[in-house]
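Key idea: predict the complex, not the pieces.
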Amino acid sequence: MTATPGPRPLVHVVGARPNFVKAAPVIRALAAAGVDQRVIHTGQHYDEALSGVFFAELELPAPDLNLGVGSGSHARQTAALLVALEEAFEALRPALVIDYGDVNSTLAAALVAAKLHLPQAHVEAGLRSFDMSMPEEVNRRVADALADLCFATSADAVDNLRREGVPAERIHLVGNSMIDSLEVVRPRLDPAGARAAAGLPDGVYGVVTLHRPGNVDEPERTRALVDGLAGSAARVPLVFPVHPRGRAALEAAGLAGVPGLHLVEPLGYLAFLSLLAGAALAITDSGGVQEETTILGVPCLTVRPNTERPVTITHGTNRLVEPGELASAVEAALVAGQPAPMRPPLWDGHAGERITAVLVAWLRDREAASAS
Ligand code: UD1
Ligand code: UDP
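Result:
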């Protein structure tokens, strides 16, 4: 790729399922403000069900570049990302690189931008599980340390950044762009249709998603998890769109034979949120699902020892559980019924616009500085 002369665009780097959901509202708001922007899809996720369907359903423009890095070990995937992003940034000469969340594409974008001396912004900055065994914790700490602009979803994230010495002027509490996406599609959700399509009987049901290494890479933990799902599915039908990561491990632990547990392929955004909106509860280790259940008022049982999203506990429907507690936690959630939906401050569907306002001011200041 050769260098393009001319104006320097804002460049979004996205690569994995949750990135698309977080980036769409920012891209839309920047487009409405007339800002020149490009989208790089790293190709970390490539299946239609993990990638293409999100571009269609979130009405995202097709990526300007798809780097096609694909899967691999952390080292191989990150190395491929670094090489491909360096070439792409050298060609596009971004005025600012914007990365999202905590996936390997986020880490690579932050490292390459820093080494090329490109300004960078991190959307969803400051979340901390304080658990360095999670690849996401490593990725988000690096992205935050290198970001010129840190866009935080919650006050606890701002506190984390301040504690780590990030100067206040770099931090912007803007709310949660993943919730912007939820609010955009909410009127189109069809829980009854999604339930029928998933083959669930009438009546209450729960939704399961599990893919974190901590749950699907250790056979003993995975077996305990499948036992917990079996105890839960004995009480209420569960539908589980199985992420490709962990499918083999979960099946080896007996997932396929659990009565009452409906295994389906990963779902598109509208189908998944439709199911979630109609669910009596969710069992998950997903970051995004903890947030979405909070807004939808669906009790969320997060099968993890920690969460980087404590606001979903203090201002939401989330609760941390161990695999051995799952069945009793499901019972308790069903008995308690649906809590009133809660809304953490600024999770109001307008984070993309707030981010855009900061970016437009930043671009103006930068232009003024280079003119003087
Ligand atoms: C990644 C993120 C994780 C995020 C998740 C969202 C990292 C380190 N992890 O995890 O934080 O929660 O995305 O879903 O970035 N695969 C497919 N099809 C695809 C993509 C992947 O089958 O389109 C399979 C491959 O076997 C691959 C495995 O899934 O090896 C893992 O993919 P990868 O992108 O490395 O990590 P995720 O587990 O998806
Ligand atoms: N999601 C989806 N289909 C599914 C499972 C999840 O559309 O089958 C959506 C979910 O609504 C949320 C996002 O994917 O918006 C979360 O992605 P994931 O759980 O893969 O990543 P995490 O948030 O854990 O990083």
